[in-house]
Structures are given as C-alpha cells and as structure tokens.
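Cross-check.
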Amino acid sequence: MVSSGKKSGCLMGCGSVMVVVGAVMVIFWPTLFFNQLKSMMILSEESTSFSIWREVPIPMYLECYMFNITNVDEIIARTAKTIQVEQLGPYVFRESHTKVNLTWNDNSTITFYNQRYWHFEPEMSNGSLTDSITSLNPIVVTIAYFMRNSHPLIKVTVDVFLRTLHEHMFLSAPVADWLFNGIDDPVLKIVEHFPELPINIPYDKFGWFYERNGSREYDGIMLMNTGATDFSKLGNIEKWKYSNTTMYRDECGEVRGSTGELWAPEIGQPEVTIFAPDICTYLNLAKNETVTVLGIEGMMYVANDSVFDNGYRYPRMACYCDEVRDENCLPPGALNVSSCRFGAPAFVSRPHFLRMDSYYPSKISGLNPTEDMNFRLALEMFTGMPLTVSAQLQINLLVRHVGGITINNQLPDADTLMPMFWFRQEVRMNEEYASLARFALNLRYYMPVGFYALTGIGVILLSVGIWIILQKLLRSPESTPILSGASQEDVSVTER
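Predicted model, tokenized:
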C-alpha cells in the first residue's frame, strides 16, 4: 500500500509540473501558433501553402454578362433618345490557374507566370455561346478615338475607308466570338499591313479574351514576395512585367497588393489591396462587415466609392487622370484604362454603373444596379485565408462624336459611355479547405483552454498533496507528546 508521504509527493510533483507547463504554454502559445502558421504559409517548395498557390484547387468560375442593344434600328434612324440594352447571361466558365516557369530568387521573392484556362459550363449558364449579341463595333470606335485629334482631311478619309467596310458602327456576333474566339474584322487585316499608322492593335481578331485561354504570357511575368524575410509582405507583387510601376502616374502607377491567393494575417487592417493585371493597376478594398462562410468567421472587404473616384472626392485618386484634367477625366465611377488596352477608349466601372455619377447612366435604358454587384473579398483574420472572392468589373467604351468620322457619330448622345459586358470572378472556399481552416482555428482558440484546464488540474493536485501532508503532520504520534507535555506543564504552573 502506498504511504501517505509518497502519495502526497507524487500529487505535489505532478501538480507542480502541470501548473508550470500549463502556465508557460498559456503565455507562449500565441507565439508558438503564429510561428507554426508562418512555417505553413511562407512560400517555399516544402510549405503547405505552395501546392495550393501553385495550382488553386478550389473551384473558380467566371460569369460573363453581355449587354445586347435592342433598339439599333431606331438609333440608326435617329429616332432613339436613349440606348436600350438587355442583359444576357450569365455565360459561366470553370477557371483554373497554374503558376509556371517558377524562379526562386535570393531576396525572398519568386518570379512566375500565371497560366489560366477557361472551360464553358453549359449547365450552369443561362444561354448558349451561339447566342447573338448586338453591340458597338469596338474596332470602329477605337479607330475614331485614335483619330479624334487628327487633321479634318485625314478624318474624312478614314471615315470613307471605314464606310467601305462597314455599313454602321454596330456589330452582331455569337457570344463565343465576343469572348474567346475573336471576331474577324477586315479593318484589322488592313491595318496590320501599315505599321506606320498611329493605331496599335496587336491582334488579327477582336475578342475580350481573345488569345488568352491557356496563354502563359497574357497576364505578364510577376515578381512576388514569399514572406520569408518579412511575413507581412507575403503574397505582395513587387514587380509586374519587370517593373515596379505601370503606365499610370504617381502612386496610381505603383505595383502593389496581392493577386488574391496569398495573404498574411490582416488583423485589424482597415483595407486590403489587390493587384489586377487586367487593368494594370491595384484596387483598395475597405473593411465592411463581419461574415460567416461555412461556419468560419471572417471580415468582408468591399470596393467603396473611392475606387473609381478620379480625384473628385478623394484627392489621392486624381493620378488616374492627366495632370491637366481634361474631358477624358470622367465623373466619379469609371476609371480610364485606355493606356492599358492598347489605346482603345476602355473604361472600367462597377456592374450596371453601380454608384456612378448619374451623367452617363442616364443615357442607357435597361440597367439595374444592385449592391451585390460590388467587388468583394472575405478573409479569415488570423490565418489570412480567403473565404470568398467576388471580383466584379464592367468594361465600357467611351464614344464621343468625332468631327469628320460620321460612322462613329450615330449614337443619340454625343458623349456616351457604352456598357459592353461585365464579369464576376467567383471563388468560394469548399468544405475540404473549410475543415483545414477550422482545425487551425480550433488549435488557436481551444489549446489555451486546455492549458488553463491543465493549470487548474495541477493546482488541484498540488492542493490535495499539501492537504495530505498537513493531515499527516496533525496526526503524527511524534507530535502528540509535545502537545501533551506542554499541556501538563501548563497545568502544573497553573496549580502553583
């Protein structure tokens, strides 16, 4: 039978160890967890994040919505007061990303290309790729825009040239041609034989995503921070196409932000930044609200009114216009990306001109902007894991009447921003990765609870051990005579 002394010693020893271990782990667990998280997320060939980043395994979809002009005959007859459009779609494509041509650099960066593929998903789409879409002819509009400041005689000559090839400025083609296959236009075939012309269209067909499906180079070569030296810079694009600046001036031309796949924990950040090669610049998304996706709580970031402000209400956005602000600096709501799109009069906005100054939307009938069309990104704060991404932008063409080029001057208003199509790039965490996130978060939240419990149990064991020792001392035979003798002496002294 175990003696009370050994029992108390065992209890006190175990209790002391549990108290020390529990208290130490409670203090150091946040640091240990963060270090483990860093080792998993810092990009290297051995890290957990590498395989997910290199070939994103989460389902991604591109939803394209086309604007079909329904009153072309009235416009040509000069009886229409506005342009009437109807939205067709979505035409849904499953999207895959693969990072190729990887080069690991000594300064904690990696160089790569982002190769993307799109596969049409007819069962998820509302319509067929053979649907006919009638809209503006981008080639006619682009050439007129290029020649707007030319000599009147040159513009008249260009107008005669365009009218020999096109009856008017409108074009009907299947969705597949508008998006990926490309539309044949005789103007392009003629222009490519005259490289001295001030028109730089480096394609033999026109399509919004022409020659992009499966292309390695289209998105451009990128230099990204791996986070090895500074974890807070994980996923940040340092250079794009070998440069840390783009064609925009001042801070608008800086290459900054993440491509949206890797994020360092963004605890408390008022905004996050995404670099978008499609528009050659970055977007700042502001903290909006707390959301829950598959049981995981995160923070939603959205594009606020500053994103396409052009400096009207937010001075820092003025660098998206020329220093001498002219008519090409549009009212708030649309960003001029013509220099990013080979000089075409392309402007990006939120879908259906959401929250745009009323000047341009008032000229188009059939638009129905809703708040769910805004650019959104939800992140889990402690791991930086994207919970959901809904990247939504609209492509528009600015059409202004150009003296002498009559084929371009057929719209009811002499200054029209024409919506061509808008897209939603949707990424949503699936259950497989949600379970990984929940496991990591459970470690962060519940391990300290376990350490507190361990400390509490240790205190109890230690207390029980001390109680046993006290009981032993109080009941020990060796202590009885001392107490008894002391009592007798007291009695004798009292009697005397």
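Residues 431-475 form the longest helix (45 residues). Residues 479-496 have pLDDT under 50 and may be disordered. Passed to J.P. for a second look.
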